[in-house]
Amino acid sequence: DGGITQSPKYLFRKEGQNVTLSCEQNLNHDAMYWYRQDPGQGLRLIYYSQIVNDFQKGDIAEGYSVSREKKESFPLTVTSAQKNPTAFYLCASSSGLAGVSYNEQFFGPGTRLTVL
Amino acid sequence: AQKVTQAQTEISVVEKEDVTLDCVYETRDTTYYLFWYKQPPSGELVFLIRRNSFDEQNEISGRYSWNFQKSTSSFNFTITASQVVDSAVYFCALSGENTGGFKTIFGAGTRLFVKA
Questions:
Q1: Of A86, A112, A109, A113, nearest to A24 (Cα)?
Q2: Cβ separation A42–B106 shorter than 8 A
Q3: What is the Cβ-side half-sphere exposure of residue A36, based on CA atoms within 13 angstroms?
């Protein structure tokens, strides 16, 4: 089955620690995204990647980092510099042509991160 | 700047009632796309529909219908004869040409409760 997997589903972190959230897709999509969702709010874009070895900051990139070494994988690291990291994190992907992607996004099941 | 407003935070209906979820958007782009996504309690967003700025035809898919009106910058979603399984958070989203369609702006979402 094609889709997006995120692991783990729940993650607990002590303050001051970095943590990496996994996102893998087997849809052969070029574009991948990371969003943050807080209670009662919409999705806010953290980072996106249009193609392998390339990524751009979204609206709330501070305190986060990403890499895109493989087409299938787009891990997100939440660093200790992120002041309020407790949230629900969603990874998504979409197909695109020539650097443009107006296509719908396919989402993973999400990772709920709690900082203790 | 692009913006999506979903003024209804929560809606509660009884099964078999019709319900309309409102979405108002702002953009200066000539070419843009509008989307609706459903987020059930499991957390994973599911794509429902995409509509481009040049196509104002209404769309019907089973019990779901969408009304796109550029004159009022609205893209409303109606569920006919609602069912308990329709209970979810629904997001309206906008993607425009000035970022190649990669930066999708999501509304805050409308939480729909359908009671049996």
A1: A109
A2: yes
A3: 21
CA distance B29 to B97: 6
List B residues 76-105 in contact with A (Cβ-Cβ < 8 A).
91, 95, 100-104
One digit per residue, the tens of pLDDT, for chain B of length 116 reads 789 999 999 999 999 999 999 999 999 988 899 999 999 998 999 999 999 999 888 889 999 999 999 999 999 999 999 999 999 999 999 998 776 667 889 999 999 999 99
Mapped onto helix, strand or coil, the DSSP state of residue B104 is strand
CB contact under 8 A, A110 and B50: no
CA distance B16 to B25: 29
Nearest to A108 among B35, B37, B44 (CB): B44
Query: Which residue among B46, B52, B109 places its CB closest to the CB of A42?
Result: B109
Q: Which residues lie closer than 8 Å to A84 by C-beta, 6 or more apart?
A: none
Say whether A90 and B47 touch across the interface (CB within 8 A).
Answer: no
Q: Which residue of B has its CA nearest to A49?
A: B102
